[in-house]
Write a structure and sequence with these properties.
Two copies of one chain form a homodimer. By secondary structure, chain A is mainly alpha-helical. Chain A is about 80% helix and about 0% strand. The first copy, chain A, has helices spanning about 10-35, 40-45, 50-55, 60-80, 90-110, 110-120, 125-150, 160-180, 185-200. The longest helix of chain A has 28 residues, at about 10-35. Chain A is elongated, with a radius of gyration of 21 Å. Chains A and B meet through helix 6, helix 8 and helix 9 of A and helix 6, helix 8 and helix 9 of B. Chain A binds a DNA duplex through helix 1 and helix 3.
Chain lengths: ~200, ~200
DNA sequence: TTAACTTATTGACATCATGTCATATTCTTT
DNA sequence: AAAGAATATGACATGATGTCAATAAGTTAA
């Protein structure tokens, strides 16, 4: 027996239980999608008692949120990268890179993102999580646009907030399209094209 | 066989039943949203027997699709309006007008569109209905872009399909934003801004 | 070591929505 | 008016959810 430390065997077991459930949940989500995924299935797969699941999580939604935490953090990371271009060309290069990074997330996390997309449509809580990410992006882009306008790089007559939203929206929809594997062109091609239209339309 | 004249009292009653249910359904949908709307509630409100609802409709989804038919038709109508501009300025005017018409739908049909948006996230059948509308729009826009490119009005190096999607995506997301009443600016302002960036970015 | 206490687990149960189907009702035809 | 056809009906089977009182497992302190 191990000793010396605090008696936290109980707590450890609890963590194991939680973990088992999370893993089972992920498998079921990937197999069934969010809609069709059923808690009792996860419980069965995790080999725990029915009620136990509800001790650890409030329900399906809660489970998925935990499973998506790292992905959401990655989006926040991308969203936080601000930039201060000195020229239109530099802007285009950076914006293209960011659009790429954003869209690449769809490929990198495609399976869980598919589940996530479904869940956004169904669960208010999860939808709010995504909305928060969206807000973050739009705020960042808004600032970038305003900066470019202040420095005489971008058309000052445009409402920077509206421009930022429009730009993000196009990116977001492409993201989901890639998630669903419905895109025809490569991510690079997509990023290049929309960036080009955007930069040409906004910058001077 | 049906003679259309005599003895159609039964058929008429059936139509009335269907109608009563549709009206009740609309009320419930508007009160509760798609998710929370419950068939038994509609049945109660319509004063018909439980099983009767299933004689006329397959379920909630089916009911909503019928209720949204005219709205969907309006979208198709807007989507079908193609155009052949002779100059960048003319293009901007027409595109702005179309974006406006599209976004105005959100205001005109806001309540049912709110229900519809929820339903798109939840029901595959309804989601497919919207996807068909989207495809229609993108096809139309794609053609418009290609036409402009062929006539030396737009940057020929861009993939017209990708440009069209991006443009529609921005419009679509704004549409939902307006549906949810989350927009800050007026529809006109939104349309003007995104059109301006788009036209400046695409046309020569 | 044991008794009291705390924390975690459990499955039976109550609840609620759905869709089906055998039966009943209402209307039409002969 | 009897047979036949189209509609309507609600009881029922099904399946998912979340709760909770009871129990088990682990910890602490005497």
């Amino acid at each position: 027996m191990d000793n010396g430390k605090v008696g936290d065997k109980r707590h450890l077991r609890s963590i194991m239980t939680r973990q088992k459930l999370l893993e089972a949940a992920k498998e079921i989500f990937l197999e069934e999608g969010f809609q069709a995924a059923v808690i009792s299935q996860m419980i069965k797969k995790a080999n725990i008692g029915y009620g136990t699941a509800y001790v650890h999580f409030k329900g399906k939604e809660d489970l998925l949120i935990v499973l998506m935490e790292n992905v959401m953090d990655q989006f926040y990371e991308i969203a936080e990268t601000s930039f201060f271009p000195k020229s239109k060309d530099e802007a285009e290069r950076i914006i293209n890179k960011q659009a790429n990074a954003f869209l690449k997330m769809a490929e990198a996390e495609r399976n869980m993102m598919q589940v996530f997309e479904q869940a956004i449509g169904i669960s208010t809580v999860i939808s709010d999580k995504w909305k928060a990410i969206r807000v973050k992006f739009i705020q960042r882009i808004s600032k970038d646009v305003a900066y470019a306008q202040q420095n005489g790089l971008a058309r000052a007559e445009l409402n920077h907030e509206l421009v930022a939203r429009g730009w993000f929206f196009a990116n977001e929809m492409y993201l989901w399209e890639i998630v669903r594997n419905e895109h025809q062109s490569s991510v690079e091609e997509i990023a290049k094209t929309i960036t080009s239209v955007y930069v040409e339309g906004l910058y001077l």
